[in-house]
Design a protein that fits this description.
The protein is an alpha/beta fold and about 425 residues long. It is built from 14 helices and 15 strands. The chain folds into two domains: about 250 residues, Aldolase class I (TIM Barrel, Alpha-Beta Barrel); about 80 residues, Arc Repressor Mutant, subunit A, CATH 1.10.10. The protein binds iron/sulfur cluster. Iron/sulfur cluster (SF4) binds next to loops.
């Protein structure tokens, strides 16, 4: 049976680095034209992949970053044309672009809408000037509204807004004001993320040297639960830890593919791919993937059937990545073939993030007993989730359960491995 395939394109350029961000991006725009050439080459490397259980055309396409909206409309057009020619895209596919206020105007938004981009993910983070300043964002509150009105005028109806909370010293009132403003806009999708201090970032160093104290764990939990209650009360479904949609139509199809462990290709520096087994090249030849990346037969990574799903990640250095794709080679830095135990672990970790939860049939009996007990005792952490497939026994986390997702996953993983 054929599986859907998605494509993620990483655009590793930003106007300025935000001090909390650990995504790979650079601020030198002179590299963008070469990058666009390289991305088109990398997409074409995959063009022969039309056999096996995963097939083109693509079901979703996502331009993320970095800041994809630093690309000009014509550069974005070239990339999209290459995708259509080399891989194809199903009719009405979700095609998302991340855009940042301060990098787009009405003409730009209209231009990318005409290219077929039909979903926007807008990196607002906040409407509050003090929060925007603390986060060193390049945009103002006014530019968030301008981006939203430009998007509506350009014909975008599927719009997601990113907001960030749990900043140092953020009060419940400040976060409530952001939520109120977002609710008044009646947007179909909201992503609400807590600020995390990622090692290696300027914020992490500032925190370590005592410049600020992070939001304390109890307050983070309160923020999380409050956010879920407020948004669900306003008609949003809390369908993933950080994501809320007005109805099913506005859930991110692309991200749902990630959480369901569907296949995706990642192109661009540092992008990740996930490939189920059963790939073959256009000649139908199967190849042992062997000990690592490099020049591959037929330019395609071909994996011996039943060797297990492969997760691969691209080289991060833009020049090294360019050298590989220019030579017609996949720019993989490395890959891993997942063992059955790793697969179960991933299913568990990703499934528990979402309102679909996990099917515990086939899991270690101790885990089934543990979940049954927690759900049966009304612990408020798990509940049995009725599902149309009567053979499935699904559990999902409640909102309280989601606040301790990492600990629960750790406990389960210890039993699986
Ligand atoms: S704009 Fe986004 S990707 Fe770029 S540095 Fe800021 S948070 Fe990171």
């Amino acid at each position: 049976m054929c599986q859907p395939l998605s494509l993620y394109i990483h655009v590793p350029f930003c106007r300025r680095k935000c001090p909390y961000c650990d995504f790979f991006s650079v601020t030198d725009p002179s590299l963008i034209p070469a990058y666009v050439d390289g991305v088109c080459k990398e997409i074409r490397i995959w063009s022969g992949m039309t056999t096996g259980r995963v097939q083109t055309p693509l079901h979703t396409l996502y331009l993320g970053g970095g800041t994809p909206s630093v690309l000009s409309v014509s550069q974005a057009a070239r990339i999209l044309e290459t995708v259509h020619q080399a891989l194809g895209v199903i009719p009405n596919a979700e095609i998302t672009m991340e855009v940042n206020p301060g990098t787009v105007d009405a003409a730009y938004l209209s231009g990318i809408r005409q290219l077929g981009i039909n979903r926007l993910s807008i990196g607002a983070q906040s409407f509050d000037p003090a929060k925007l300043s603390f986060l060193s964002r390049i945009h103002t509150r006014k530019q968030v509204f301008e981006t939203l009105s430009g998007a509506a005028r350009a014909g975008f109806s599927n719009i997601g807004l990113d907001l960030m909370y749990a900043l140092p010293q953020e009060t419940a009132d400040v976060w409530q004001a952001d939520l109120d403003t977002a609710l008044a806009l009646q947007l179909p999708h909201l992503s609400c993320y807590m600020l995390t201090l990622e090692p290696g970032t300027p914020f992490y160093r500032q925190y370590k040297s005592g410049h600020f104290s992070p939001c304390d764990p109890d307050q983070r939990t309160d923020f999380f639960v409050h956010t879920s209650r407020v948004l669900e009360h306003a008609g949003y479904s809390h369908y993933e830890v950080s994501n809320f949609a007005k109805n099913r139509r506005f859930r991110s199809v692309h991200n749902t593919h990630y959480w369901e462990r569907a296949a995706y290709l990642g192109v661009g520096p540092s992008a990740h791919s996930f490939l189920p087994d059963g790939f073959s090249d256009p000649g139908g030849q199967r190849h042992d993937f062997g000990s690592g990346p490099g020049p591959l037969p037929g330019s395609l990574p071909c994996i011996v059937k039943n060797s297990g799903p492969v997760r691969a990640w691209n080289k991060t250095d833009i020049q090294v990545w360019l050298d590989h794709v220019t030579a017609g080679r996949l720019p993989w830095a490395d890959h891993e073939i997942l063992s059955p135990a790793q697969e179960k672990m991933e299913q568990m970790m990703l499934g528990l993030r979402t309102d679909m939860g996990v099917d515990v049939n086939g899991l270690h009996p101790e885990i089934q007993v543990l979940m049954d007990r927690l759900a049966g005792q009304g612990s408020g952490v798990f509940f049995h989730h009725p599902h149309t497939d009567s053979r499935a026994k699904r559990f999902r986390l409640t909102c309280s359960g989601l606040t301790c997702l990492d600990g629960i996953v750790d406990a389960i993983v210890r039993k699986i491995t």
